[in-house]
Amino acid sequence: MALEDRKKEFEKCLKKFEDVLSKPKDEYIRDSAIKRFELCFELCWKVLKDYLLEEGITCRSPKSCFKEAFSIGLIDDEEEWLSILEDRNLSVHTYNELLAETLYERLPNHLRAMKALLKKLNQEE
């Protein structure tokens, strides 16, 4: 998939993520928001991977892509992105009510960071 196409998919996914976070919370909205976060995360790191490849930088994992994006100024706070990665790993591999509640509370910050990254990527065109 070309970088531009992937960015468009990422943008659509972010809109759906934002939409679900704007709804009154119940367990179904919470779970849907977490799933949207996971989907956005996957598109996010793949967009980064494609962008970095066009810049001549190879990364093979989300963590390495975030570190490279930080090193060239695409993301401002590497620790924030490593926290996003950790939340994604927790959401995919562990599920319990307390974790879901805790993760849900952090999702608006993750959305903000992803939207900021997309904005920077779009400015790089």
What does this entry show, briefly?
This protein is mainly α and 125 residues long. It has helices at residues 3-21, 27-54, 62-71, 78-93, 97-123.
Distance N to C terminus: 17 Å
CATH class: Mainly Alpha
Classify the helix fraction into a percent range.
Answer: over 70%
Order of helices and strands: HHHHH
Number of strands: 0
**Shape, please?**
globular
Low-confidence stretches: none
Count of alpha/pi helices? 5
Give the CATH architecture: Up-down Bundle
CATH fold category name: Four Helix Bundle (Hemerythrin (Met), subunit A)
Pairing-aware structural class of the strands and helices?
mainly alpha
Count of discrete domains: 1
Taking all Cα atoms into account, the compactness measure Rg is 14 Å
Note the beta-strand portion.
under 5%
Q: What is the assigned CATH homologous superfamily?
A: Nucleotidyltransferases  domain 2
What integer is the average pLDDT?
A: 94
Strand count, sense and closure of the main sheet?
A: none
Structure description:
This protein has helices at 3-21, 27-54, 62-71, 78-93, 97-123. By secondary structure, the protein is an all-alpha fold. The chain has one domain (3-123): Four Helix Bundle (Hemerythrin (Met), subunit A), CATH 1.20.120.
